[in-house]
Amino acid sequence: MVDGGGGSRILHQLKHAGFDWMDMASIPNLPPEKLALLHEMYRSIHEVHREYDLYVYVCNMENASNNTTLRLNWNVTFGLGDDAPWFVSEVPTLMISTAYPYHLFDAPMIKTYINAYAGTPDVREAIMEKLMGRSPFTGKSPIDPFCGREDTKW
């Protein structure tokens, strides 16, 4: 999870709504990012299916006035982008961006993407209402959510 604060709150709201999630950073002996990477890299898709029925990426990275862009950087161990979401064709995967609307540029493989534009409590609650089916998605994007690229559309 890439987080500036709001992401962990969304995870807790997901748990309250009945979703299970595991904080890989809580397992000792390796830095959290290395442990999570190794765990994901060497598991079979059968294990992934047994443990998860949905992957959710929560990105709460706010752009600053001195940045011209904000990019997702997939960690690499062997130069392959090892923690990139390689399983998206096998397990339903969702990305929620709460602060920066252009992350789809770096994650075109993720086919379900929510631009929330803010990580405030009322927006987080609206995200949960939509995800749980209690209200429909009716917004219209004020920006090009496909980042001007064809590969983010399919």
Question: Which helices and strands, and how do they pair?
Answer:
Blueprint: H1 6-16, H2 32-41, H3 45-51, E1 55-59, E2 93-97, E3 112-115, H4 121-131
Parallel strand pairs: 1-2, 2-3
Helix pairs in contact: 1-4
Question: What does this entry look like structurally?
Answer:
The chain has helices at 6-16, 32-41, 45-51, 121-131; strands spanning 55-59, 93-97, 112-115. It has 154 residues and is of the alpha/beta class. The model has no long low-confidence stretch (mean pLDDT 81). The two termini are 24 Å apart. It has one domain (6-131). It contains four helices and three strands.
Cα Rg: 16 Å
Instruction: Give the helix proportion (percent range).
Output: 25-40%
β-strand number:
3
Q: Choose one word for the global shape.
A: globular
Mean pLDDT: 81
Backbone structural class:
alpha/beta
Binned strand content: 5-15%
> How many helical stretches?
4
Summed up, what is this model?
This protein is 25% helix and 9% strand. The chain has 154 residues and is of the alpha/beta class.
Q: Can you give keywords for this protein?
A:
154 residues, alpha/beta, 3-stranded parallel sheet, 4 helices, 3 strands, 25% helix
